[in-house]
Prior knowledge:
By secondary structure, the protein is mainly α. The chain is built from five helices and no strands. The chain is flat and about 70 Å long.
Amino acid sequence: xxxxxxxxYQHGTTRAYRMCRPACEACKAANTAAAxxxxxxxLARGMPEDAHGKPSGYTFWSCRCxxxxxxxxxxxxxxxxxxxxxxxxxxxELEHGTSRGYNHWGVQV
Length: 109
């Protein structure tokens, strides 16, 4: 079943893709072709030299040089979750032998 589109939209165009739900094969093909064209144009332009050593060089431009990797790792270092190990001496007596004692405090039941 091909869905109806509002006036001014035609199936098989990238403009109609976002309105065509569920997307028909013609609209999917047009959108896929346009995305491939955009990627090819980006690679043809090349990565600007001032993007090296920045996180966007690693993520957007997919550059894997040492400078871009280092910048990306430095930018994501603050996002990592580090669980602090609680002091077992402060564990309440009521939590011994419970699932909370095991999950939160790390004590075997």
